[in-house]
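FORM 7B: Structural annotation worksheet

SECTION A. Query
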Amino acid sequence: VVTGSLPEPVLLVGPVTIDEIAGERRLGGVVSYAASVVSAFGLRARILTIASPDTDLSPLAAHDLHVVEDSATLTFSFNQTSEGRQLTALARPSRALTAEDLPSAWRSPHTFILGTLIEDDIDLESFAPLVRSASRTGIATQGLQRHATPVVTRGPLQNLSSLLPLCTPATSLFRSEREASYWTPDQLAAVVNTGVRIVTTHGQRGAEVQLRDEHLQIPPVVFESEIDSTGAGDIFASAFILALDEGDAAAGRLAAAFSAASVAHRGPGPLPIRAEIERRLAAAAIVGDDVHSGAPN
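SECTION B. Predicted structure
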């Protein structure tokens, strides 16, 4: 099913999810959170996803959708345990998304975000030609480290051979601190040697950007009290990729600000527009300078 026709150079690929959290069901997945960032930047995305026909995709109505219909939508339940938040996969689509699913008019993206969530949900190798032709690509690596039995566990990076063809100097890989702890030194070296950018998020301690010859720390940004951190990493990754033309430091700072704004509400709802995020970021910087210099608040 294809909706919308407005051309836009931002392509998002990945499964949407139904997230069951504290008795509430809501739309989720990397592409859902990325779409909210694209809107905040004043852009329109093309989204390739997979879902059952009865899935409510109205939160994505501002964008162009190509939906591969399946008998099931990827569905997670979120439960709080003594060891932290635990995910259980309640339902999964019957197949992976592939580049063959893309409409022909969508196969020359300027900006490309691949949102893999769980093992075998995207045929990564099929998208390698698009990655090599795109001006910039962001890849969420979490799906290469998540296994559902049906309880979702994280583990070592899988299918490195499938990931490496997508690693170019124009590619950025995103991972959480916990996911990074499972990477072996050999895996890290193999990826870094391709010239790819590796971005690791550290929650309230900010993030870091690792390139072959450079290592950059991104300081955290705090705006409001945290209500729900679900999707904050996806928000960070999407904003970073969209702002990357301005340089790693500026992109990282803006991404951290978008992530900070996203935790103030539940789900991938509308975000403040970019101009508002930049205003908040500038105000936070002024306050920080005043505190550092000893000026009264």
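SECTION C. Observations
Residues 274-293 form the longest helix (20 residues). The chain has eight helices and 16 strands.

SECTION D. Sign-off
Analyst initials: ____
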